[in-house]
């Protein structure tokens, strides 16, 4: 038997175990994990080890881990439907309620506004910055912005400078967003501390990395009693998104190799 035949035989026998190891380490079931084990067993083994390291160091419950990963995959900058389903299934299996899952999605959907805020900051810079804009604003504009800020802070708490800038450009949206983003805070399926950890997770996704928001929500999470170990648990879980490159591409590679007769 040739070296190639021996390698193929070894990979074929190892693939099912490595696929199961990936599934167990990630806490989800998905057919592409077995494909990764077949197509790239070395990668499958190493990523399973990485996922186990993240899991073993994690101080959050398995239910909380599934809910954090649900938020990451349902965020507007990612929107991975397969993984949303996988982590909803995982969360339900760990005892999550429909109310808890709805709150996760309510919290996650606020990320859409993060495309608006940088735009208003550019407009503010064109007016000389926030302080200059506030000083030079017409009385009517300043009064409207201050009303929008007061209405927002009554529902969501103190504004960051970026949000104050937004009140001068889009006061109606600011007020409406305060109501929309306040929905998950009007119920208590999840603790306030855990809600802040969800915000940290979605603010730090690699497609986004919103540092100002991350600092705000880490500070709030700590004020609510979150430990560094809990925050580090969230930070490590974000790295697990990397396997989705292989979950997406290797089934396609396998199909195209077969189509090409290779």
Task: Provide key terms for this protein.
262 residues, mainly alpha, 15 helices
How many structurally independent domains?
2
The CATH architecture of the largest domain comes to: Up-down Bundle
Helix-strand string:
HHHHHHHHHHHHHHH
Q: Mean of residue pLDDT?
A: 92
The value of Rg in angstroms is: 23 Å
Give the oligomeric state of the chains in this entry, treating copies of one chain as homo and distinct chains as hetero. Answer: single chain
Helix count, per DSSP? 15
Protein name: Carboxymuconolactone decarboxylase family protein
Domain Carboxymuconolactone decarboxylase-like: 171-251
InterPro entries: AhpD-like, CMD-like
Organism: Aquimixticola soesokkakensis
Please provide a written account of the structure.
The protein has two domains: 31-53 and 61-97 and 190-251, AhpD-like; 113-181, no CATH class. It is elongated and about 70 Å long. 74% of the residues lie in helices and 0% in strands. The chain has 262 residues and is mostly helical.
How do the strands and helices of this protein lay out in sequence?
Layout: H1 3-26, H2 31-39, H3 41-56, H4 62-74, H5 81-93, H6 98-108, H7 116-126, H8 130-136, H9 139-156, H10 161-169, H11 171-181, H12 192-203, H13 211-223, H14 228-238, H15 244-260
Helix pairs in contact: 1-2, 1-3, 2-3, 2-15, 4-5, 4-6, 4-12, 7-10, 9-10, 9-11, 10-11, 12-13, 12-14
Protein name: Carboxymuconolactone decarboxylase family protein
Pfam families: CMD
GO molecular function, one term: peroxiredoxin activity
């Amino acid at each position: 038997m040739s070296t190639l035949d021996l390698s193929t035989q070894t990979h074929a026998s190892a693939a099912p175990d490595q696929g199961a190891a990936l599934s167990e380490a990630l806490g989800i079931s998905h057919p592409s994990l077995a494909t990764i084990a077949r197509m790239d067993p070395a990668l499958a083994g190493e990523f399973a080890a990485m996922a186990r390291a993240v899991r073993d160091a994690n101080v959050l419950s398995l239910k909380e881990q599934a809910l954090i990963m649900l938020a990451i995959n349902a965020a507007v900058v990612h929107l991975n439907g397969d993984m949303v389903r996988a982590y909803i299934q995982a969360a339900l299996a760990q005892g999550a309620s429909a109310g808890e899952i709805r709150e996760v999605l309510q919290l996650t959907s606020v990320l859409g506004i993060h495309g608006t805020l940088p735009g208003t900051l550019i407009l503010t810079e064109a007016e000389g910055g926030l302080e200059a804009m506030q000083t030079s604003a017409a009385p009517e504009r300043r009064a409207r912005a201050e009303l929008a800020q007061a209405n927002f802070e009554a529902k969501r708490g103190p504004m960051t400078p970026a949000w104050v800038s937004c009140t001068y450009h889009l006061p109606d949206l600011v007020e409406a967003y305060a109501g929309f983003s306040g929905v998950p805070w009007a119920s208590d399926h999840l603790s306030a501390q855990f809600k802040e950890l969800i915000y940290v997770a979605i603010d730090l996704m690699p497609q986004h990395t919103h540092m100002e928001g991350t600092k705000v929500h880490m500070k709030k999470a700590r004020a609510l009693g979150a430990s560094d170990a809990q925050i580090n648990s969230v930070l490590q879980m974000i790295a697990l998104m990397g396997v989705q490159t292989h979950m997406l591409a290797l089934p396609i590679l396998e199909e195209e190799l077969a189509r090409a007769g290779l």
